[in-house]
Design goal:
Blueprint lengths: L2 E7 L7 H9 L8 E8 L12 E7 L2 H7 L3 H13 L10 E7 L2
Antiparallel strand pairs: 1-3, 1-4, 2-3
């Protein structure tokens, strides 16, 4: 069953969002079982983003593929890049939210 991996980010002012999204996109094909990536800057007209500025979604072929992604060396490099771009100055440093769900 496909696993959808959703991540919300609060990037700092001046962050290189292009580099972040390109690095994430580059994980497709590098991480076994990672089927797709889509992400970008929040464009919602609703004022309920709770300070998150960017988001991305990935689809994995299975929970096992998602579990393999978490410690994968390519993911760890991208995770570090993202960490350098986060705005942790507000909300107690809560600059990332993650949620996964199973579905078609």
């Amino acid at each position: 069953m496909v696993v959808h991996h959703l991540v919300y980010l609060r990037l700092r002012a001046g962050a290189d969002e292009g580099a972040v999204m390109a690095a994430l996109r580059g994980l497709v094909g590098a991480v076994p079982g990672l089927l797709s990536f889509a992400g970008g800057k929040n464009t919602s007209p609703e004022d309920i983003s709770r300070g998150f500025t960017h988001a991305f979604a990935m689809q994995f072929e299975s929970a096992a593929a998602r579990d393999g992604y978490l410690p994968h060396p390519a993911h760890l490099v991208v995770k570090e890049l993202i960490g350098e771009q986060l705005d942790r100055s507000d909300r107690g440093g809560d600059a990332v939210a993650v949620m996964d769900f199973n579905g078609e």
